[in-house]
Amino acid sequence: MIQSIGVLSRSGKILVSRQNVSIARTRVEGLYATFIRMCNTISNSSFETDGVRFVFRLCEDVYIVLITTLSSNVIEDTEIMNAIIASFQQKLTITSKGITQGMFEVLFILDEFLQWGFVEKISVSNVRTNLAMRSKDEEMYLQQLEIKKAEAARIAKQKAEEIREEKELKEKLAILQGLQTDNFFDQSPNKTPLPLSADYIPVKETPSPILEKKPVKKSVKTGHSKGGLQLGKKKQAETIIEEIKKEQEENTSSNAVVSDQIKEEKKLMVSNAIVKVSEESHITVSAETSAVNVVLNGTLAIAVAEGVEAEMKLAPIGVVAKAQMHPHVDPKAFVDRILKLKEGKKLAVNTPAVYVKWNYKAEEFSLPITFTCWPAEAQNGLTLSMSYEATQELKGVVVEIPNLAPITVVSIDGSLEVTDKIQWIIGDVNVGSNGSLEIEISGEGLETSKLFPICVEYLHEHTLTGNEVVEVISNGQSIEFEKEVMLNATYQIIP
Q1: Is 136 helix (H, G, I), strand (E, B) or coil?
Q2: Which CATH number fits the domain that encloses residue 410?
Q3: Is 409 helix (H, G, I), strand (E, B) or coil?
Q4: CA angle at 282 for the pair 276 and 284, rounded to the nearest 5°
């Protein structure tokens, strides 16, 4: 009987371990620690200790280890070891990194071969067929992993942009300070050149900005005339002065730009209030099961002008249960879709502050546009049929499909552009709009899984949660306000 099977690094770290009988964790860890201490001294692929036998194989930088009873058939154990390694090689790279990244595949393979410590009579090809079946847990894990990767990439890009802007600002400030220092020293009065004479005595300059000429009794002209020397100096001085003026004009213009930006920011509060709504949506839809996974993150920021006291009426629909309120927000009023602050608290002035944020996850959600996909293998390639139905008004809807091979359009509602990807351009849609696409892809050895992920892009005027401000009330009367809605949507269709 096989008690446990595990994959260990050379240093003894347990990457994965699957127990087939009831056994304590400390017991398992102790057995693997014993194996690591003794494996380097053993020349065979198996050895025995008190009560158990170890059957192992070194692959790249990991050990694959079977812990069996002493009565277990070592030949059968060796065969099952070879079958497990062969299955691993077909699905992943047998290294520490490959085992860690393919954890689901490792567990599935082990479960196919072993059941309650007894070996299942199954071939490697049967295992490969069984592993091709979809797992909802695995799909959810992969979806969450993709979302985390996209979020990490977005944050890294944002941080890099902030660092670049900060570096450029520092360089500009350093250049500006250098120019101001140069201007300070260059703005001293021009020195009048002394005429060349036979009895010319050099005079030591003092720190005083005014230079005095030492009187000269006689002046004898040399090959260079006095006027010629002064003319050259004049041209050089004029050039320097022109450069300084040009630099000062540039500094003045840059200061003017900053001043204009400040004025523009002040103009933002011409209205009584500003409402900024930001929402990111990550939508993943399974083409096979139509399962939906939606993650929504958003914020609601508000600012009012000086002396304005107001409360906000939110849209009648919205994901209230998932919203997090600022401590100053009145929770009782918020239940009635009214955003106002507690007694004695005031809204932010001029600069918007976040008062509501939400993080919503759901597997059932009314999408703004739904797609159905029907990929199929044909005799000389693949066929793909897609259809859509819009439940909300959207603009600029575009569907991007991986470009695998030459295609033939059978039918289409909209237009098609083929570059490195196949772009199905649907355009603007209204509530109830629908359409379809059918294409044939010619090529050998193509798989339907290579058609995914299919990405959908669109522009939306409203948040998916419905968390928006529809009216601002001050002293019992409705007042005008500015509203900015910033939406970032990621919509993917997976196999």
Answers
A1: helix
A2: 2.60.40.1170
A3: strand
A4: 155
Are residues 479 and 424 both part of a single domain?
A: no
360 vs 464: CA distance, rounded Å: 10
Beta bridge partners of 274: 303, 482
Helix (H, G, I), strand (E, B) or coil at 287: coil
Asked if 356 and 374 sit in the same domain, the reply is: no
- 395 and 469 in a single domain? The answer is no
Distances (CA, A) of 41 to 44, 87, 191, 415: 9, 28, 90, 69
CA neighbor of 4 nearest in space, from 34, 44, 41: 34
Q: What is the pLDDT of residues 40-52, one digit of tens each?
A: 777 778 888 878 9
Tell me the pTM: 0.45
Task: Read off the amino acid at residue 222.
Answer: T
| Spatial CA neighbour of 55 closest among 5, 89, 116 | 5
The pair phi, psi for residue 143, each rounded to 5°, is: -65, -45
Q: Does residue 209 sit in helix, strand or coil?
A: coil
Long-range contacts from 332-339, C-beta under 8 angstroms, 24+ separation: 337/313, 338/311, 338/312, 338/313, 338/314, 339/300, 339/302, 339/311, 339/312, 339/313, 339/314, 339/469
- Helices of type H across 195-268: 226-267
How far is 329 from 231, CA to CA, in rounded Å?
Answer: 75
Q: What is the pLDDT of residues 118-177, one digit of tens each?
A: 666 666 676 666 666 656 676 777 778 888 888 888 888 888 888 988 888 888 777 777
Total number of domains in the chain: 3
Which residues lie across from 387 on neighbouring strands?
372, 436
Same domain? 340 vs 434? no
State the average pLDDT over residues 365-387: 88
Give the span between the Cα atoms of 328 and 348, in whole angstroms: 11
**Tokens 């060349």 found at:** 196
Mind spelling out the 3-state secondary structure of 327-392? CCECHHHHHCCEECECCCCCCCECCCEEEEEEEEEECCCCCCEEEEEEEEEECCEEEEEEEEEECC
Same domain membership, residue 391 and residue 334: no
Let me know whether 422 and 407 are in one domain: yes
Chain center to CA of 317? 29
Tens-place pLDDT, residues 435-472? 999 998 888 778 888 888 999 999 888 888 878 888 88
Question: Could you give the angle at the alpha carbon of 303 between the alpha carbons of 297 and 306, nearest 5°?
Answer: 175
Domain co-membership, 305 together with 432: no
